[in-house]
Amino acid sequence: MDNTTQPTTRGMNGLIEDWVSDKDAFKNVSWGKTMMWIFLLSDTFIFSCFLVGYMSVRMTTDVPWPNTSEVFALTIAGEHIPLILIAIMTFVLITSSGTMAMAVNCGYRRQRKQAAILMLVTAVFGVCFVGMQAFEWTKLIEEGVRPWGNPMGAPQFGAAFFMITGFHGFHVSIGVIYLTVVALKVLRGDYEERGYEIVEITGLYWHFVDLVWVFIFAFFYLW
Amino acid sequence: MQNNTDTQPQQHPISLYFKVWGLLFVLSSFSYLVDYMQYQGILRWTLILVFMFLKAGLIVAVFMHMVWERIAFTLAILSPPLCLLVLIALMASEASYTNLNRFIFFG
Predict the structure, then answer these.
(1) How far is CA A189 from the centre of its chain?
(2) Which residues on chain A are in Cβ contact (under 8 Å) with B45?
(3) Distances (CA, A) of A23 to A8, A15, A34, A143
(4) How far is B25 from chain A (nearest CA, A)?
(5) How many CA atoms lie within 13 A of A201 on its CB side?
(6) Interface predicted TM-score of the whole assembly (ipTM), two decimals
(7) Is A152 inside any structural domain?
(8) Beta-carbon contacts of residue A35 (< 8 Å; ≥ 6 apart)
(9) Residue pLDDT, tens place only, A52-111
(10) Does A200 sit within 8 Å of B81, measured CB to CB?
């Protein structure tokens, strides 16, 4: 951008022109990618607020916190396995992150069919994850867990659980829609001229969802 | 900002992604084993944090391509969350105070 030219446009168009003529600080990074990262940064703060809030209520309560290892245990084939559902969900999400990384790689190699297919596979894993989360919610609600109380221990458990996993599940659901839309556009060849950076930007969002899960898994389920 | 980023695409060997993918699987298994083996106390918390930061680091660095970005960009994105440490410290001190009061007056 040339900063020495005098502004010519007035009114609303002038306002827009002035804002977009800012000098760039991030070389070799497109606006799309910058903006996705800034959005993810703001999302980091939202999830951090939830997790810090969870830390606060867990530290303040003098009622014992429910044992997550037992709350999320499942009996599979007569075998009682602690926390198994959450472990499976973690592996599903990591697998989806792997296929997403492959999709980005294929995109930059301009193999648009493979990129689109891998993105759709990623979306399917996302749907699996949300499905398991719905199962988990149903199970806990049937066991009497509510945002204001539960039979296992500290009443704050339900509030923290529904808020944190609900918001994360919402992010996964949005990610599935986003991935599907971009994958179909990639498949149709909409990005043949502009290049396939869009796959990387979509991937950033998806990897972020996985990243948040790493923290939720550590602090909410394992701690 | 350049708009023709596809003229210099980021090409990394696909084997790198497979290695990181495998490593994430192994680290997740370790995290799960921490619970399965029923480790408690300091050992449990240390292991959880170590595996968590290793996984988060791998995802951000390789899958989100942060190692290949310029420092100006990396710092702009990764340094702001550091102020969360202040929030955590404030809330932890406040929470332990509340807990103490509950213990004294309702315990």
Answers:
(1) 26
(2) 223
(3) 18, 16, 14, 57
(4) 7
(5) 19
(6) 0.89
(7) yes
(8) none
(9) 999 999 999 989 999 888 888 888 877 888 888 999 999 999 999 999 999 999 999 999
(10) no
Instruction: Note whether residue A54 is domain-resident.
Output: yes
- Give domain limits for chain B: 11-68, 79-107
The string of pLDDT tens digits covering residues B47-87 is 999 999 999 999 999 999 999 988 888 998 999 999 999 99
Domain range holding A77? 30-222
| DSSP-assigned letter for residue B79 | S
pTM, full prediction: 0.88
Side-chain-facing half-sphere of A13: CA atoms under 13 Å: 4
What span, in angstroms and rounded, lies between the C-alpha atoms of A52 and A32? 30
Residue-wise pLDDT tens digits, A2-23: 455 566 777 888 888 777 776 6
Collapsing DSSP states into helix, strand and coil, what is residue A144? Answer: coil
Q: How far, CA to CA in Å, does A116 sit from each of A103, A110, A123, B10?
A: 7, 11, 11, 18
Q: Is residue A120 part of a domain?
A: yes
B6 burial level (CB within 10 Å; 0-12, 13-18, 19+)? middle
Residue A5 lies in a domain: no
A13 by DSSP, 3-state: which? Answer: helix
Please give the residue of chain A at the shortest CA–CA distance from B104.
A62
Q: Do B10 and A200 touch (CB under 8 A)?
A: yes
Rounded alpha-carbon distances, angstroms, from residue A120 to A86, A127, A183: 23, 10, 6
Which residues of chain A make contact with B10, given a CB cutoff of 8 A? 108, 200
Q: Which residues of A touch B95 (CB under 8 A)?
A: 55-57, 59-60
- When divided into structural domains, chain A yields a total of 1
Calculate the dihedral angle through the C-alpha atoms of A89, A93, A98, A101, rounding to the nearest 10 degrees. 180
